Amino acid sequence: MSDDLKKAAAEAALALVQPGMRLGLGTGSTAKLFVDGLGAKVAAGLDVLCVATSEATQAQALGLGIPMSTLDETPELDLTIDGADEIDGALRLIKGGGAALLREKIVAAASQRMIVIADDGKQVATLGRFPLPIEVVPFGLEATRRATAAAIAAAGASGDLVLRKRPDGSMLLTDGGHFILDAHLGSIANPERLAALLNQVPGVVESGLFIGLATAAFVAGPAGVQVYGDVAAKRG
Question: Is 236 known as a binding-site position?
Fold first, then answer.
């Protein structure tokens, strides 16, 4: 059922794509379904130019014949479509389960609109049930981990910080060559404060808190696809 819901959300977002658009392509299982659908539209003659949020999405899109660019060549995008690990009622997100949070945030920030696509299992009243990914540089890891823990405590949260590894036990590296600390917080009472405090920690590259970036969301459930926010609204 979850895959069917993800596909329904992806198809709803595909309806927003217009010829000539500059699109940001997200990363993850739901975003992958959107890229598959976009590839079919491109094969049928749709003219778009896209920027990927990860090497995996880049490879997928190129394999489907989707015209690709970079933010250096195309620094302003019309629309980014991406998934989320959690989404609350204020369209605040936790992202980074797929280890692409830095590039996802850069691409989203370069876009006039960011539309989230998700199944209703990603909806939460309070962020934090999903472990918060925090991307950090390898240098000084233990010092950064301690400063990150202090920032989390100052924001009124607590929980274990776990260095993410691959299934084979090797260290996970992001596309940018960084590590990820997953913060198992359970609940984040003040996402804005936590995001601001984490951004002040030397060694933290970016957190998976996406605040003020999503302009709307398509959330698919058994009753259909619900729309949150304004799909036509542009940010800033």
Answer: no
